[in-house]
Amino acid sequence: QVQLVESGGGLVQPGGSLRLSCAASGFTFSAYRMSWYRQAPGKERELVARITSAGDSTNYADSVKGRFTISRDNAKNTVYLQMNSLKPEDTAVYYCNTALLVANYYTPYWGQGTQVTISS
After folding, report:
1. What pLDDT does 88 receive?
2. Residue 26's CB: how many other CB atoms inside 10 A?
């Protein structure tokens, strides 16, 4: 079955860095776009970054442009989110996401999430 397993979250001081990883299995990873979302307490889940199946195009939320970088390794079935210059407002649970074509419909899949806390 489809599995997305995030790792790499933690507690970091403002200005620090973290690298999140999402290991995927159960589908042809190299054929699908991958995304990172985040959800802060009391807020809606929001798209952070997205990368095409081949990794040749990315897009980012305005709030993270220039600080976060999404990448993927199709040989390892893994997508990454490098987060630099972290701010307290980046505190959230970060989720890996994809949408798979099933019976002519795209079905979203989510990981369990990894907590990122930015605090001094």
Report:
1. 96
2. 12
Q: Is 30 helix (H, G, I), strand (E, B) or coil?
A: helix
Phi-psi region of 62 (alpha: psi -120 to 50; beta: other; left: phi over 0): alpha
User: Tokens at residue 106, please?
Assistant: 């795209």
Do residues 71 and 51 touch, judged by C-beta distance below 8 A? yes
Residue 85 CB partners (closer than 8 Å, separation 6+): 15, 17, 67
**Predicted confidence (pLDDT) per residue in 77-107, tens digit:** 999 999 999 999 999 999 999 999 888 899 9
Q: Rounded mean pLDDT of the chain?
A: 97
Strand partners, 109: 98
- Which percentage of the chain shows pLDDT scores above 70? 100
| Cα(96)–Cα(36) distance, integer angstroms | 5
**91-to-7, 33, 43, 61, 100 alpha-carbon distances in Å:** 15, 25, 11, 15, 28
Q: How far apart are CA 91 and CA 41, in angstroms?
A: 9
